[in-house]
Amino acid sequence: MLTMVTVQQYNMWNLFKDKNEINEKNIIGFASFIVMVLFAVADLLTSLVADKDLIINEVVYNSFVWVTLGCFGISSFEKVKGK
User: Residue 64: which residues within 8 A CB-CB, separation 6 or more?
Assistant: First the structure.
């Protein structure tokens, strides 16, 4: 059990190295996409339950859209171009 915890902790610190196998842009883009989906689900639930629209600041939502598009766009460009 102790070795399993040590391995997971080691993997977490690998994220901060310059050379790793994890694409950080995909992780950030996916997290941003999940936040956008949660906003959409929350908006649907509040409109169904309370018959009100969920007021989301447009600037905040648009920033998540730009982060998602930017991360996935850069990652896709790097994949096509070949690092």
Answer: 32, 35, 36, 39
